[in-house]
Each structure stands twice: as C-alpha cells, then as structure tokens.
Amino acid sequence: MSQKTQIAKDEGIVEIRHRPEGDGFEIALLPYRSDLYVPKRNCRTTFPLELITYWLDRTPFAMFCEVIGRHEDTIPGVLKQELFSYSPPEQFAGKRLLDFGCGTGASTFALARMLPQTEVTGIELAADRIEIANRIKSYRGSHNVVFQCSPAGDQLPAGIGEFDFVMLSAVYEHLLPDERKIVMPLLWSAMRPGGVIFVNQTPYRYSPYEAHSTGLWFINYIPDGMAHWAARHLAKRNLEINRSEDWNVHLRGGIRGATEKEIIRNLTRGNPPAACILQPRQNGLRDRADLWLSATNPRRHRALKKSIAALFRLSDRIWGTVPGINLEVVIQKVNP
Prior knowledge:
Rossmann fold; four-stranded antiparallel sheet; globular
C-alpha cells in the first residue's frame, strides 16, 4: 500500500494514511455534503488494513471513525471507572460477565483486558457485527472472550447459562419501549442471585437538554407527538434519523432515554423490592453523586460542580435518581 489510500463511498471519501511512526493508520472521513452529521471525522487505529477495509464495507460512512474510536480510545476509561468504583478487580476473578448489545465488541474487548480472569460473553443481534468482532478477536488473540448472536430481538441465545455481571453500555436507549419490557426481564433471569447489572451512557429521560439525538432543550418534557415534530423541524444533527416520519426510527436512535425506576420496573416485571440500586464505595467514593463529580473536569467550575453534586446526592436519597445528562446506574439482584 502507498502512504495514502482513498476509498470512495456513496457519502464521501475515506482516506487511510500510514502513521509516520509506522504503528498503524490515520483515518479521515471527507463527506461530499457539508450538512452530513459525522460525529467523529478522524481517528487512529492499529488494526490491519485488511480488517479496516472489511469493516468499512459493513459500516455507515458517517459512523466509521466513531466506531473505530470506541475500540481504540473512548470505551476503556469509561468502563474502568464504572466497574472499579463498585467492586475491586479481584471480585471479578472466576466470574462470568455478559456484555449485552456489544456491537463489534469495543466494550467486550475492553472488559476482557481489564478482567483477564473473567469469562466475558458479548451478545449482539446483528450477525455482521458479530463477524467483525470475531475477526478482531482473531487479530488480538483474546482468550477470555466469546461472541454469540441473538436469534431475535426478544430472545437470548440458547444455553448461555447464568452470569454474575451484566453490562449495557450505551444500549438501553436504543431499545424500543416494548423491547425494554421483554429484553430486560430476560437479562434479569440470566443473572445469578446477588448478580449485578451495569447500565451506563444512557441519556437521562428528563434531562433539560437532550444531548444524545437532537441537541434540543426541553424536548424531554413534551409528549411524543410534539417531540417528533420538534426533532423533524428543529434538530440540526443526525438528520438521517431526525427527518424521519416514523417515530420508531427516532426511538431506535435513542431520543428517549431512561430513569432508574423504569429500568427496575422492566427488569423485575414490576417487583421493585427484587432489585437494589448500589452505591459506589471504592476509590474514596461515597455515593453516585461523588462518582458523577469524579468524571467531570477538575479544573473547570469546580465549586459549581460540587454544588450540583450536593443536589444530586439529595435527589438520590429522596427520589432514588441522579438526574445528570446521562444515566449511570448499577442494580443488584436481591437474594430471594
């Protein structure tokens, strides 16, 4: 390969360059249209060219660097903070962890690297994503990772057994309302008594600012019909989704997030006492408000953020919710 390769796609050019250091590639997305929403236009990767081009043929142009970036730099730090704020690494040894909605395996591989003595199973509905994940597994030689394809959106693969931990990383918001009522109890039934489920990077349903899909203020507070109209006419990004006349397309894109109560209600089929929201107690943390504060920039508006954390702490104690932009909640299956 020459120092630069350009691959033409329907929506733009994908430019792949050898890194000057010789340890991988730099990828740039050059869209034909200026209004095409591209969340990440540049990325770096150590994946081989054969895998990059195979992946590119099976991924939307606008999302390619975003997907690659999840594997290379954005996922591991988030998951490490999430996991080890609740349990020390040794508590995962010899256990089984299910990564539900794993996509091409970015979160799965990150979990497997952090927890080398844990059996990590990634489950995904899209067979082409599972194929990409298995190709990455072959390239990386990950020994404690298994990928399986769900037979349908309302089913889990047969014979997967029980798990000590379940992870939904930026997944819950993409389930349709009826799917949430079906899939979450299935995951709950696959958890051992005392097992723990992590739900992270899911938009908080009643945040004043809807940051995930539309970038609009207060859309979370209006009925679905009005929210649909606002998304179609006022949103300036994700236009392929937000211009859709089908509300389910917007829901699949993640426009409606979640609350702790909704998740527990769906997990337990309306039996909240069967579930317990855990508080992070590791690394000097006292509660979920501390965890939120620890994830913010310590050099900017620290006094204001501490005040917000204090309000979150009060909200959590009174209503059982931390109403940030994104919902981060860890729920334990109470022993019967």
